[in-house]
Amino acid sequence: MALDRDLAWLPQPPLDWRARLTAVACDAATGPALIALATLALDGNQLTALTRRRDRLARDAAQNGDHTAPFGLDQVRLGVVGGGTLDLLVPQIAASGLRHGLWLDIVGTGFGMGMGELLDPGSAFRQSECDAVLLALDHRDLLPAGTVAEGADAAAAAALGRIATLAGIIRETGAVPIVQTLPAPGETLLGSFDVWRDDGLARAIAGVNAGLREAVASSGAVVFDAGGLAATIGLNEWHDPASWFMAKLPFAPACAPRYAEGLARVIAALRGRSRRVLVLDLDNTLWGGILGDDGIAGIRLGQGSAEGEAHLALQAHALALRGCGIVLAISSKNDEALVRKALQDHPDMLLREEHFAAIHANWIDKATNLEAMAETLSPCRNCPTTPRSMCARWPRGAISKRSRYRLRTAHAAGITPAMRGAARCRHAVQGRMPGWATIWPAWP
């Protein structure tokens, strides 16, 4: 869909975006300035311009020596190997990395030379000391027409074996292999029957995607779900036969910014830079209506109305994210006592007070509340699951079972090995973090 393809969740770039890009200089603010310019819904041309400006700033910094690249960003060397033309995609990947605080130095290969350089131990690519290598392969590289005709299952098994071999070679170089699932073709030969035919391409692609994780498990590879991304955008929008036959572009140029963003997220996760906190508003977000005006009984939530079911579905999604380790928090212009009562007493509420690590329900602007949350929820250096503003070192054995349960509740995570070590932490809650005393009323 176009909303996903066009990065519609990001703000649109201002009219003077290129002027702002040109104005970025080599100084202490270079890194934050590049991140701010990247965190917009940029198209392919803008992403390419951003990477060119980034590289120009790096060259200027190397000459004057005052401020050197990567300007405080996390530097990652990424190798890219594929069967199509990837030169147009490389700068868009580099610019998308800036959104996540990454300075991506990308090592590519010439057209049609990727497999040869990857297999040659003496090649410049193998000697480039990449941190990660993307195998940007699709069904045209792994499932040629002749192989599928001999049997879809056998072709899928052969493709998985080839991917596993390449991933193993990448791991031998010290890099993390990134393998991608295969997008299904936009058009099938016999429609739905292609999935069932023994020689159907759709069946072969499904077989590769189903066995990919197990095939690369031994190499420690991570999977980038390009197939799922293509399905979300729409296969007929993803595939562009004209671009393939004329320039060997693996997918439509309009989809490149979204592909680059998806890949940048995978690399950010490898570097521990994934977003860990989801901050939610309340009125007309977790429920329909205004709590202060409608009261607890008047807000719309739960079965029986389309609006109430929609808000309930949102709560279920947030609760599922919490189950995956995402920390939930609230920032809302509301009365805190009423909010806590609604969370506890409303019969259809899925998210309860104990599901939130921080509740900022007050009349302060959201930006200030978010800054306060960032400070209180950021982990301390000694124990990654502990907010640094609440951490004090305690001797071994100081955390009780009850306290461990509270820690899991507040952080959606268990006690880490670091906290089970020789030094442990105690959280001084009262008076240091408003709103947390209700979650953790007393400590041993």
Compact summary:
The protein is α/β, with parallel strands linked by helices and 444 residues long. The chain has helices at 2-5, 17-23, 30-38, 44-64, 90-98, 114-119, 139-142, 145-149, 152-172, 201-215, 226-233, 235-238, 241-247, 256-270, 291-294, 306-323, 336-345, 366-377, 401-411; strands spanning 74-82, 102-107, 132-136, 176-180, 222-224, 277-280, 327-333, 356-362, 391-394, 424-427. It has a five-stranded parallel beta sheet, with helices on both faces. A three-stranded parallel beta sheet has the order 6-7-8, with helices on both faces.
Largest sheet, in brief, is: 5 strands, parallel
Beta fraction: 5-15%
CATH class of the largest domain: Alpha Beta
Distance between the termini: 53 Å
Q: Structural class, from helix and strand content?
A: alpha/beta
Could you tell me the CATH topology label of the largest domain.
Rossmann fold
Q: Name the poorly predicted regions.
A: 388-444
Helical segment count: 19
Order of helices and strands: HHHHEHEHEHHHEHEHHHHEHHEHEHEHE
Please list the strands of the largest sheet in the order they lie side by side. 2-1-3-4-5
The number of domains: 3
CATH second-level architecture of the largest domain: 3-Layer(aba) Sandwich
Give the overall form.
Answer: globular
Mean pLDDT level = 84
**Number of E-state strands:** 10
Gyration radius (Cα, Å) is 25 Å
In helices, the fraction of residues equals 40-55%
